């Protein structure tokens, strides 16, 4: 009885996991023409990540259970493992091959984020293919091999549908519902137009920033840029952030570390970046990192040479605040840009 219950629970897990895999595939297909449009689309990216973590967690939980099942079949000397059969297909095609495919996609998504926007239109379907191999071979083995044997003994499924058809279509119904929920959360059509208008404005201003920065460096030199541009930048963001609900005068009462944290929270709140991280390396040096910046699309149309020695606007903002609060000049290292943001090291000078 325990083994039968466990098998049903595993089928339930694959149905649930596949629901999220289908939902994520819908999100990917929705943006398949140009994945760059997802940059700055924080609500969609947030749910895409959540669904991804859920589906991959369920996949590996199932993988561990299946490995135990495979071990049990090997110990029992099950001949069906080595001849075309339901357990053969699920063990080798839906188990070994599927896990290799899903793991490859997971490694790229987790540790090679830059590659997602370049090759996501291939990696997404590849990962979904791996999930599909595991899911469909699992359903086939259960509904066409295991369940008929149970039925012959007078037992039916209690946790999952007794019908293969229902088990097959439920993930697509739930997956589509999850996808539509994500679109609903992102906002109505009017909000959608506003979002794109906001991001396009940010996109253009970011491009203009790079142009002015390059010109200023060539005409004035880097020292002059930091001496004159950075302080004036603070004057601008003081007015801008006041309109957004952040009193910069109150910010000046805080320590530099706390002031930067408050500024970054507001930056996330107004939708300019999903996350802005600050990592202090010493009392004088810190790294500012933007993650899923709404202006990251700029890098999609710029060459590597054009980004050489460029500085992320977030770093300029941070330098302006640090300059105002400490009265010290700063040294800014050239930003390390990636597909979704940038890292910049800043150091306070004595």
Features:
69% helix; 350 residues; alpha+beta; 5 strands; 11 helices; 9% strand; single chain; five-stranded antiparallel beta sheet; Muramoyl-pentapeptide Carboxypeptidase, domain 2
Query: What's the alpha carbon Rg, rounded to whole Å?
Result: 26 Å
Number of separate strands: 5
Helix content: 55-70%
What is the rounded distance between the termini? 74 Å
Instruction: Write down the overall mean pLDDT.
Output: 79
SSE class: alpha+beta
SSE string, helices as H and strands as E: HHHHHHHHHEEHHEEE
Task: Report on this structure.
With 350 residues, this protein is α+β, with helices and mostly antiparallel strands. Helices cover 69% and strands 9% of the residues. Strands 1, 2, 3, 4 and 5 form a five-stranded antiparallel β-sheet that branches. It folds into two domains: 2-186; 191-348, Muramoyl-pentapeptide Carboxypeptidase, domain 2 (2-Layer Sandwich), CATH 3.30.1380. Mean pLDDT is 79; it is low at 192-199. The longest helix has 40 residues, at 113-152. The termini are far apart. The chain has helices at 2-30, 42-76, 86-111, 113-152, 164-186, 189-220, 222-243, 248-251, 256-269, 297-300, 313-326, and strands spanning 273-280, 285-293, 330-332, 336-337, 341-348.
